Amino acid sequence: MVDQRAGVEIARTPDDRFADLPGWSWEPTYVEVDAGDGSGPLRMACVDVGPRDAPTVLLLHGQPTWGYLYRHVIDVLVEGGMRVVAPDNIGFGRSDKPTSRYDYTLERFVGWTRSFVEALDLRDVTLVCQDWGGPIGLSALAADPDRYTAVVAANTILHTASPELANRLTWPVHGVGESHVLLEQGLLDYLLHTQRAPNLRASDFVAGGCAVMPSPEVLRAYDAPFPAEEHTAGLRQMTALLPLTRNDVGARLGRRTMRFLSTWEKPFLTCYSDGDPATRGWESVFAEHVPGAAGQEHRTLEGAGHFLQEDAGAELGRAVLGLVPGS
Q1: Would I find Ligase among this entry's keywords (predicted)?
Q2: Which residue from 24, 48, 61, 255 puts its CA 20 to 30 A from 172's CA?
């Protein structure tokens, strides 16, 4: 279904695409968020389960996934007595999907997340962020830090392109001298594929980012939000937003967020896998840069790939439980 509002076309994935997904029994909650362009609210979907007076854990996904990625983590956290909120980014999952790629910017992703948190009035939040959930969620936290009490960074990065990252990362993205950059070839291959491929399937990237191949039924669940090309504008554009130079607006936002994190003294835990070259090295950068990371029992999950929620979701959930204040 495509809806027209204030000149903006919005695609919504039919509900039957989400029926009978393996391991997924949670009913969606819908929250209206500020579109950020004056066109009226957008509908953002989430799972919101557990006692409302319990500590809150906010689970943020990235590209090309949706809240389904966290299903094993949700099970552990709910069993541990937490309130768990797992939204689908605008353009992903059950959330509204503007059909123009130009409706998606990194600043809008941050704004949508902030508007979502404010609409639910979430407080005392433990933020768990993976992939693009880090650049988005950590920037939202930096803009409204009083709502948050702890952070778990899991296979994520901040886009800064800073020269100080030289020799720190397995997949380098950083400035060299005054006007050069050093970029990982695999990252460029990935970016170009998402822009050029006539058909883009989320399941292909999930399959390639897991240490253990998910079942065909699970892979189909990742394709469920994208039944037609009109639903994939966010899927394509999020990758195009990757800051590859220091001059990129996203890199400037990333550096600003890093400066804020240098003042963050609340608990900050890194929980990375041993099989994700795309983010390898950032666990050390965060651990050294963020005051709240000092003294934490940082975790390396063995035998897991980029999507560690698929390979080691229960273990990630237990690590989060160990950090949540009052758990």
Answers
A1: no
A2: 61
